[in-house]
Amino acid sequence: MTDERYRGNRAAVAEREGELIGIAMSGPPLEAAAAWARQLYVLYVYAADHGTGAGGALLQAVIEPAESAGLWVADPNPRAQAFYRKHGFVADRTAQVEDGVREIRMIRDVQRRR
């Protein structure tokens, strides 16, 4: 994370009683033609800590609420997709298969939300 190539990235961890329960990281969009400011690369919270607010706090720590953003999420993964919809993301009908996993792209366009 200290390498120059990660300068534009943001990372955050969530802890409970000194134990790691989640991690998130965002950075510049990986797609050259992206219309959003940031891309969520990682957001994981242990299943035992789902619903505690840790995921939302991590998301906000790495992507400001006023920033447009994009992400890829496994499909089907209804829980994760519902979490992202709750935070203003919508599927844009773009899908890919990577390493045998189907993913859909979700975008949060803050201009449309205003």
Descriptive overview:
- The protein is of the alpha+beta class and 114 residues long.
- 19% of the residues lie in helices and 41% in strands.
- The chain contains three helices and six strands, in the order βββαβαββα.
- The protein has helices spanning 54-62, 78-86, 110-113; strands at residues 10-16, 19-27, 38-45, 69-74, 90-98, 101-108.
- Strands 1-2-3-4-6-5 form a six-stranded mixed sheet.
- Helix 1 (54-62) links the parallel strand 3 and strand 4.
- It is globular.
- The termini are far apart.
The side-by-side strand order for the widest beta sheet comes to: 1-2-3-4-6-5
Tally of alpha and pi helices? 3
User: Which regions are unreliable across 5 or more consecutive residues at pLDDT < 50?
Assistant: none
Residue-averaged pLDDT: 93
Q: Which overall shape is indicated by the principal axes computed on the Cα atoms? A: globular
Total DSSP E strands: 6
- Strand content range: 35-45%
The rounded Rg comes to 14 Å
> How many angstroms separate the termini?
34 Å
